[in-house]
Structures are given as structure tokens and as C-alpha cells.
Design brief:
Helices cover about 30% and strands about 35% of the residues. With about 250 residues, the chain is of the alpha/beta class. It has two domains: about 190 residues, 3-Layer(aba) Sandwich (Rossmann fold), CATH 3.40.50.150; about 55 residues, N-terminal domain of TfIIb (Single Sheet), CATH 2.20.25. Strand 10 and strand 11 form a beta hairpin. It is globular, with a radius of gyration of 18 Å.
């Protein structure tokens, strides 16, 4: 299985990730979750691969009970500290997501930040089976992805560079097959000349493939948005929010 310690964000990647996911985006996503899934203070949400916990904490601030799961202790410790300070109904779990077994049933599970695309199909199925087992009958799963084939093929660029704050970011990507994936090396250079390099793999699935994968574990794909609740996904759109329910 993948070394999941290598595909989570730390160092300068952490700063970049927060820069490209400002509070305004989190608010739109969380407002959609609450309205579309009818979340109340009696609801329970599972945030798998929660990262920095931007959704878990935002939901918790609305009084919704959240279990935030990640393999990286630095993330769960940071979330736990904030939840304790603000007295939020957010519980953190630091565990290997391939062996983690939820201890309760949830109304909604979320996998945001393109997190499911970190894994090839056989590993993705392990995670999805865990999620399905944790959902109440009729419960839902919300998946955010920017690595659907319908997005990546149209927008693929082998080399890019950009500046975020004082960081210069250079990326070199290869589109590979068997399995279909993007292999990306990102170099981050500070104003002082410090260099940090990260390797990442994003596995590419078409929407049809995702539909079959979800169906194979007992989930029914219901809707796909590019702007949550406002615009349905179309060919070439940069983001996909997939909504599936437990059959």
C-alpha cells in the first residue's frame, strides 16, 4: 500500500494549501453540506483524511458533531487543540486509514481536498468500504476531486510555475498509464533560497469509473457539482463534488 506519510502536506506545502483554500471556499462548502444534507446539532459527520481540519472545525462551530480522522499526528493534534480551546464537538482520531474502524454510525462522511485521488483503485476500495460500514442507512458521502479524467485531460500542463506570497513554486508532471495517474514533482523556493521538494501521485478516474467503484461498495452516485449546490459538473470543469448515498 502507499506510504501515506509521504502524501500529506507539511512544511511549505502546508502554507500553500492554506493559501489556495481560503476561508471563503470552506464556508461555501460547509454551508452546502449543512443545507443539502440537512445537518443539525443532532447529526454526526465523519471527516476522513481531514488534513488541517478546516471542514471539521467549521462544522463543529455550527454545533455539529464531527469525527476527524487522519494518519498524521501533527494534523489531529492541531485540530484537537483548536476544538478544546473553542469547546467544539469535534473528536480527533490519529490512525492508519487502511485499518481504522469507526466506532459509531454517521449521517454524512466527507473526503475533501482531492484526498481519495491519492490512492489506486485497490486501496481506494479499502477506504470506501470502511466509510460505507460507518454510514447509517440512507447516509451520504461527499467527495471533492480535481483529478477526474474529465478535468485533467483538458487542463494537463507538464510544467508550471507560480508565486504564492514569497514562495516560487515549480511543478513538473507526467501523465502516466496502467494505472492512469499524474506523477508530480513540486519544488518550492523561498525568497532566501531555501528549497523544499515534494513528490506526489494523483490517480485519475473518469466519472464513469468512479460511478462503478462507488456502486461496487454499495454507494449510489446521485449528483456531481462543480460549484456545490449551484452548478452541475460539466466536461473540463476544474472541480467535482460527488454525492453518493448508501443504497
Amino acid at each position: 500500500m502507499a506510504n501515506i506519510n509521504d502524501i500529506y502536506f507539511d512544511g511549505h506545502y502546508k502554507d500553500i494549501w492554506r493559501e489556495i483554500n481560503p476561508p471563503e471556499i470552506t464556508k461555501v462548502e460547509v454551508d452546502f453540506m449543512i443545507s443539502h444534507f440537512g445537518l443539525t446539532k443532532d447529526s454526526a459527520v465523519l471527516d476522513m483524511m481531514c488534513g488541517f481540519g478546516r471542514h471539521a472545525l467549521a462544522l463543529g462551530r455550527q454545533g455539529i458533531t464531527v469525527t476527524a480522522v487522519d494518519n498524521l499526528k501533527a494534523y489531529t493534534d492541531e485540530i484537537a487543540e483548536t476544538a478544546t480551546k473553542e469547546n467544539l464537538p469535534v473528536t480527533t482520531v490519529q490512525d492508519n486509514i487502511f485499518t481504522y474502524i469507526p466506532s459509531q454510525q454517521y449521517d454524512l462522511a466527507i473526503c475533501m481536498g482531492n484526498s481519495l485521488n491519492f490512492f489506486p483503485e485497490e486501496e481506494l476500495l479499502v477506504i470506501l468500504k470502511t466509510i460505507v460500514g460507518s454510514l447509517k442507512q440512507g447516509g451520504s458521502l461527499l467527495i471533492h476531486s480535481y483529478s477526474l479524467a474529465e478535468t485533467v485531460i483538458k487542463h494537463f500542463i507538464a510544467r508550471t510555475w507560480t508565486d504564492i506570497g514569497e514562495l516560487r513554486i515549480l511543478s513538473k508532471s507526467r501523465y502516466l498509464f496502467f494505472p492512469t495517474r499524474l506523477d508530480t514533482e513540486t519544488m518550492m523556493i523561498t525568497a532566501g533560497g531555501e528549497i523544499e521538494v515534494k513528490q506526489a501521485v494523483d490517480y485519475i478516474f473518469s466519472l464513469s469509473e468512479m460511478n462503478k467503484i462507488l456502486a461496487s461498495v454499495g454507494l449510489s452516485l446521485k449528483d456531481v457539482y462543480t460549484i456545490p449546490g449551484r452548478k452541475k459538473f460539466a466536461l473540463g470543469d476544474p472541480y467535482a463534488y460527488m454525492i453518493a448515498t448508501k443504497a
